[in-house]
Design goal:
The protein has four helices and three strands.
Length: 186
């Protein structure tokens, strides 16, 4: 079982992005949950894992393991719901756009057919007009097709990643805070 270890200097860093201090070599640049999200990208969605939150010893009584698990689950639920809404909105927009794109494409293809029936135009001109109309028809169809089939995929990946995070088992570990004691002396 894989262990994802997140070192925090306070439980508040789990969800809030800490102030970045480039002079502090131990300073976090992102929230713990963002770090966790990024680390789960390297784990198969079917693989079980544990989330080890390494906290300073003075944080031992701040929050219980159950409260932290509930907070992570609530956070993931919000992100999952947001992703589901985005997926629905993108697909709905794609279906809505497909209507006008289909009308434009049908008109262009009909025009393309009619151009090929004109006898007074040279064959080269008929070919160029018919081919151009066909290309423009596909260009008109591409954005709605992209929305319906592909554009929502990153949101699905996000949803699956947060579902994976929810399935992780939380482990709390405590250390002596290096920030409170910069010399590392006990």
């Amino acid at each position: 079982m894989k262990i994802i270890s997140i070192e925090l200097y306070g439980i508040d860093e789990l969800f809030q992005e800490p102030d970045f201090d480039p002079f502090d070599p131990e300073c976090r640049c992102e929230s713990g949950i963002a770090d966790l999200y990024n680390q789960t990208k390297n784990i198969s969605r079917k693989e079980e894992f544990q989330i080890e939150l390494n906290l300073p010893g003075d944080a031992a009584q701040a929050k219980t393991k159950e409260a932290i698990e509930e907070a992570i689950n609530r956070y993931c639920d919000v992100k999952i719901t947001h992703s589901e809404r985005e997926i629905q909105e993108i697909r709905h927009q794609g279906v809505r756009d497909m209507g006008w794109a289909s009308v434009i494409s049908i008109l262009l293809l009909l025009g393309s057919f009619l151009v090929t029936q004109l006898t007074f135009l040279p064959e080269v001109i008929k070919y160029l007009l018919a081919t151009g109309a066909g290309i423009i028809a596909w260009v008109a169809l591409w954005p709605p097709l992209d929305s319906i089939f592909y554009e929502w995929s990153p949101y699905r990946q996000t949803k699956l990643r947060y579902e994976q995070i929810k399935s992780g088992q939380v482990i709390l570990s405590y250390r002596e805070s290096m920030r409170d004691n910069p010399n590392g002396e006990g």
